[in-house]
Amino acid sequence: MRIQRSATVAAAFVLAALPILASGAIAGGGADAQAARQAAEHNRIVSYWTEARMRAAVPRDFAFDTVRGYHVVPQAKPGGGSGSGTGASWPNGLGKVYRATGKVYFVMGSSAYVCSGTALTDSRSTYSLVITAGHCVYDETSGGGLSGFATNWLFIPQFDSSPTFTCANTAYGCWTAQALVVNNGFASAGGFNTQATHYDWGFAVVPAGGKSNAQLDTTVGTFSHSASAMAGATVVDAFGYPAAQKYHGNDLVYCQGPIGFDANTGNTNYKLACGMTGGSSGGPWLSSFNTSTGDTGTIQSLNSYGYSGQSNMYGPIFNATTTTTYNAANGATTNTIVP
Fold it and tell me: What pTM, to 2 d.p., does this model score?
């Protein structure tokens, strides 16, 4: 969740949506065969995430120091701060946000990572969507190809109420990704730099799962998103499962306050006073959120990055490109880079 201010930007790739997951291909055998493949892949991913692997997963965080420059430091802290509104525990059981926000586990290379995500409104009856940060679905250093997508991607909603690190013992169980979708602006960035921050959103397409092989959206509820830019001083509520420093990754945490803008990127990203740490990447920023019920609000950004020594979180400004990526995810069944 650290910003890398390198000027290096990989050449842009214009890629068509191509399948890379066997479970996503609709091969011969009809609907029953496809469902069987989906179930087998789901069970494989769930079996992969043993309690030991979940406990060993680390935040995918970015940090800067004067000796090493920008580098991956999984336990780095993107901000300080404490107390109500700057990294406080969300009341247990309160509202849809408690159910729909969860933890994300995935593998990149040989490393296991953890982020946050939210069940997102979609238009399909056979799949659901989860929104998270781009760097929680795709390795921006991979060169822009389909091989950069994360593997073994898994979502646990409402982790807070039963943080047992086994899918069978969580509140609703686990959902696994059949497809991951990211924008080419992120995939082709070449590193976590200013370009990457402008496109740091990603989507997971999840088939039926959980404890009862049900759709995620009908099980926990969803939030919609908006691509309309927010004005300065708009109040948002940010959520996530921070897992570094004073946090342990078991508690749903939130920040509330007016947004500003990141002067270091030419005011092209949002800024929020927030003390959440690594592991909260991908958690939603909700505008017009009702803190009394926890049920209403619109996702207009997400936890993306921070700066060492600051008590701030930063997030991308959702725009028409976000909508294009969402629309692709809303119809995808295989890993996709947009366009």
Answer: 0.89
Which pairing describes strands 101-108 and 151-157: parallel, antiparallel, or unpaired?
Answer: antiparallel
Which among 98, 101, 104, 102 is positioned nearest to 60, based on CA atoms? 104
Domain spans of the chain, in order of start: 22-338
Beta strands in 249-297 (DSSP E): 253-258, 260-261, 269-273, 284-287
d(CA 58, CA 286): 25
Which tens digit of pLDDT belongs to each residue from 10-67? 333 333 333 333 333 334 568 889 889 999 999 999 999 999 999 999 998 765 444 5
What is the C-alpha to C-alpha distance for residues 283 and 305, in angstroms, rounded to an integer? 11
The Cα–Cα gap between 50 and 52 comes to 5
DSSP state, residue 209: B
- The CA distance from 110 to 127, in Å, is 29
Share above pLDDT 70 across residues of the chain, in percent, rounded to a whole number: 84
Q: Which of 147, 135, 84, 125 is nearest to 216 (CA)?
A: 125
* 3-state secondary structure (DSSP) of residue 164: coil
Could you tell me the pLDDT band of residue 95, with boundaries at 50, 70 and 90? very high
**What digits encode the pLDDT tens for the residues 238-253?**
999 999 888 999 999 9
Per the CB < 8 A criterion, the answer to whether 78 and 1 are in contact is: yes
CATH of 22-338, one of 2.10.220.10, 2.60.120.620, 2.40.10.120, 3.30.565.10: 2.40.10.120
Give the model's confidence band at 309: pLDDT under 50 very low, under 70 low, under 90 confident, else very high.
confident
User: 130 Cβ partners below 8 Å, 6+ apart?
Assistant: 104, 117, 118, 119, 120, 155, 175, 177, 203, 204, 206, 216
